[in-house]
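Request: Have a read of the protein record below and say how the chain folds.
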Amino acid sequence: MEERLQTIQSIKNKKVQIGIIPGHFATNHSHVNYYVDMTSIKTSLKMAKEAAHELGSTYANTNIETIICLEGTEILGGFLAEYLSQAGINKGEDINLITPELNAVNQMIFRDNTQKKVWGKQILLLISSASTGKSIRRAVDCLQYYNGKLAAVGAIFSAIDKFDDIPIHALFTDKDLPNYQNYPANVCPMCKNSQKVDALINSFGYSKL
């Protein structure tokens, strides 16, 4: 599978890159014809910093008090907070970074000691990948419970351009991937054509079958 890996560079900054592997992949929500590898942006100091600068310019005029980091985006979120606190409307402000906990039924929760970082705050929701919007919906439901105010959504990769009325600003979109397709599992044409599933994928990576 790895021999099919292709590298995609950001149009705005060639130092920001993702890998893509064509094939047949299953997520918790759907089947897709690409695995999008965002490992370097999530783990590399240099690339995360470059990615944060590219993404951060989008929010120069958006008041952000807390960044909620989902799906391993904590390093990117840290550099994004640093960038936002140095320019624009957030210059000189302190910005919180937190990650929700998942309980036994896979709901997002915040413990008592971190709820004050959400309650009444202007929230930037940072996610690695948005393919259907279901993960964002779960996070938004959590924010509503803790009275957080969703101000913006950022992603490394997104196949959707907005959630409700809020635009999703992504470093890469489905337009960067040749003929990207996303299907509900029960109507997946690759399954109907008996094409083997290459791997199960989630925000942590992939497991080959």
